[in-house]
Design a protein that fits this description.
The radius of gyration is 21 Å and the shape is globular. It contains 2 helices and 33 strands. The N terminus and C terminus are likely disordered. Strand 9 and strand 10 form a beta hairpin. The longest helix has 14 residues. Strands 1, 23, 24, 25 and 26 form a 5-stranded mixed sheet that branches. It starts with 23 loop residues before the first strand and ends in a 19-residue tail after the last strand. By secondary structure, the protein is mainly beta.
Length: 503
């Protein structure tokens, strides 16, 4: 592992470079690691160690006070990378999404109001979560909007900024296809007429399909992913409870990933038993849908591991009756042995309560995950961006730290949430507590030949790179004079601009 430097220093010296077409970024919300004798590293990987449940009246808690970033402070990256603020003065940036022309959308969002608190510990939990999740520091600015950031010359600096949409109902996921911008609010997928390059949206949206929402709306964030064939959207819908304690009637259509037909809006449950799925993305080589899932609480600090997994049509992943395959949750009644038997174990555990969140994109040979930070363990965990290497379309090694420094002592300067690759191939990190989007780039200034959208699409024509000398060797030249990366081989993804983590 390379030596860690101070806030502005670069990153790993070995490995390839990150390409906008070859990164799986996974978004996850969970909690953190514990200071007991239990070795939490045993819970990371395809076959995690699961201790006996240790439920209590209230979970372990350690909350970092959000203090924000001082003028010259930034997160810390390893040698070979540089990190700079891409956009500041935002209002709870939760996710980032790059359009095919390189414009970046920042989705700023706060949870819907009016959620009922039915138990005494709901009041305590709500207070703790409000501190842990933070709202940033300073004035309480308007949120629930989509802002467009434009880097006109691909030098890594935002030159233009526009609020495309305001007054939304707790938005989170977005996708763009064929002249339409799709926004997943907490209650519906909205479709807006939108051509690449526009700096405002004035037309009213149509409702593509409603999504399960209130009055409870426990897990309110709805993520989106566009299918590789451009015919469907996949939408994540989290559960309405921790483990079904509000009754299964309240869980209809929830704890699931939906498949929505773009032409008709017809929707069906694609996969179920996923307590709080997010970070939806398609693997660029295998075409498999991947998600990260925030698992259940209150079984002790070392249960249950959050995970990332490939998601199969019609599959059931256990919630609420079991976790990680056939491990029965004794709190759920009536017992459903038939559901436990059909539960599919996930592909890769991320340690319990890692409060990760990360917005997914196809990456060179692995996945970047933004770990949002814990609240329900007795020591901090998360508050960083990590990398998980992939091989043959599957996770193949331990996760490794890439961006740290969000928490210092008992104070949080920020909390990483959604991730994306910008139009130059650099990594963008939405920091909802620091109200900032950070940009992590290669220290040698390399950029990709042209922008690639978060959904894997390219614009019909792309501008010539700002620095053609940094275009990947062997790239082809189009009729417009723009360069494009060579097609990936069976074993290699498209050229990249950020050095990969050193295994």
């Amino acid at each position: 592992m390379s030596e860690w430097k101070t806030t502005t220093s670069p990153a790993y010296t070995r490995g390839g470079a990150l390409a906008g077409t070859a990164l799986i970024l996974l978004l996850l919300t969970g909690c953190g690691e514990d200071a007991s004798d239990f070795d939490v590293s045993q819970q990371i990987g395809p076959d995690p160690v699961l201790p006996e449940p240790a439920p209590g009246l209230m979970p372990d808690m350690k909350v970092a006070k959000v203090v924000g970033w001082k003028k010259d402070e930034t997160p810390v990256v390893p040698e070979g990378l540089v990190i700079t603020p891409y956009a500041k003065d935002l209002a709870n940036p939760r996710s980032v999404h790059t359009l095919p022309n390189g414009d970046v959308l920042v989705i700023q969002s706060r949870q819907p109001s009016g959620k009922p608190l039915e138990r005494p510990k709901d009041l305590i939990r709500g207070w703790i979560m409000s501190i842990a999740h933070g709202g940033g520091v300073g004035p309480n600015k308007e949120s629930n909007l989509v802002t467009l950031l434009r880097d006109t010359n691909r030098d890594g600096t935002v030159d233009e900024r526009y609020d495309l949409l305001t007054g939304l109902n707790s938005p989170f996921g977005v996708a763009w296809h064929d002249g339409t911008l799709y926004v997943a609010a907490t209650d519906a997928i909205l479709a807006y007429p939108y051509q690449l390059g526009q700096t405002e949206i004035t037309a009213a949206p149509r409702v593509l399909t409603p999504l399960p929402d209130g009055p409870i709306d426990h897990h309110w964030t709805k993520d989106l992913a566009l299918s590789p064939d451009g015919q469907s959207l996949y939408a994540s819908v989290g559960s309405n409870s921790n483990v079904g304690e509000r009754g299964m009637e309240a869980e209809k259509g929830r704890a699931a990933i939906w498949k929505v037909d773009l032409a008709t809006g017809a929707a069906r449950v694609f996969a179920s038993g996923l307590r709080n799925p997010n970070g939806l993305n398609f693997h660029p080589e295998t075409g498999a849908l991947w998600a990260v899932v925030n698992e259940r609480d209150e079984l002790g600090p070392n249960l249950v591991p959050d995970y990332m997994t490939s998601v199969k049509d019609g599959a059931f992943y256990g919630w609420p009756w079991s976790y990680y395959g056939a491990h029965v949750d004794e709190r759920v009644h009536p017992v459903r042995a038939d559901m436990v038997e059909k539960a599919i174990p996930p592909d890769y555990a991320l340690s319990s309560h890692s409060n990760a969140s990360a917005l997914p994109e196809p990456f060179a040979n692995g996945a970047l995950i933004g770990e949002h930070g814990s609240w329900n363990r007795n020591a901090f965990a998360g508050y960083k961006v990590v990398y998980v290497p992939f091989e043959n379309g599957k996770p193949s090694g331990k996760k490794q730290d890439v961006v740290i420094g969000f928490v210092h002592g008992d104070e949080a300067r920020g909390r990483p949430v959604g991730l994306a690759i910008d139009g130059t191939g650099a990594l963008l990190i939405a920091d909802d507590a620091g109200n900032t989007v950070w940009r992590v780039a290669s220290a040698d200034g390399k950029v990709t030949a042209g922008p690639v959208g978060s959904d894997g699409q390219r614009a019909a024509t792309t501008a010539t790179p700002a620095n053609p000398a940094t275009a990947p060797e062997g790239s082809a030249t189009s009729e417009t004079g723009a360069t494009s990366p060579p097609a990936p081989s069976q074993t290699e993804t498209a050229p990249a601009v950020l050095p990969k983590a050193n295994p």
